[in-house]
Amino acid sequence: MTIKEIRDDLKEIRYYYAMEDLFKSGSKLVPPKAVVEKVAKYNAAISLAPARLYALYIALYAHNNTQAVLAEDWGYTVEYIKQLNNKLCEFLQKSFE
Fold first, then answer.
1. d(CA 97, CA 7)
2. What are phi and psi of 30, to 5 degrees?
3. What's the rounded Cα separation, in Å, for the pair 15 and 31?
4. Measuring CA to CA, how many Å separate 56 from each of 30, 46, 74, 83, 87?
5. In this model, does residue 27 exceed pLDDT 80?
6. Distance from C-alpha of 45 to C-alpha of 67, rounded to nearest angstrom
7. In this predicted structure, what is the pLDDT of residue 40?
8. What value, to the nearest 5°, has the Cα angle with vertex 39 and ends 35 and 45?
9. What pLDDT digit, counting tens, does each position of 13-26 carry?
10. How far is residue 59's CA from residue 37's CA, in Å, rounded to a whole number?
11. How many Cβ atoms are within 10 Å of 47's Cβ, its own excluded?
């Protein structure tokens, strides 16, 4: 997978978690199989990540925070959060090889 594909998937995962209640209620009518499988794939990979990358994934994608909000919450610069996010994408890319 390319880094761009991973970033696109992470955007979709963020959207899933932001709209999780809707997905769960809608799954009774039409199961959202593709996105649920994607979330499961990424969650399995992130469960093996170093603590800092795990925390970043949960904070950015599962909790639907922006990098700017997260930088302020954690007391870091936005640039540092971007660097961590790049490391997260690289970690995921290696996990999927």
1. 16
2. -140, 105
3. 16
4. 31, 10, 10, 11, 10
5. no
6. 21
7. 95
8. 145
9. 999 999 888 888 88
10. 20
11. 9
Helix axes 3-18, 33-46, angle to 10 degrees: 110
Say whether pLDDT at 9 is over 90.
Answer: yes
Indicate yes or no: pTM above 0.70. Answer: yes
pLDDT at 96 over 80: yes
Give residue-wise pLDDT tens across range 50-87: 999 999 999 999 999 999 999 999 999 999 999 999 99
Q: How far is CA 67 from CA 6, 34, 89, in A?
A: 17, 26, 14
How far apart CA 27 and CA 46 sit, in angstroms, is 24
Distance CA(62)–CA(23), nearest Å, equals: 14
Instruction: Locate 45 and state its tokens.
Output: 């990979």
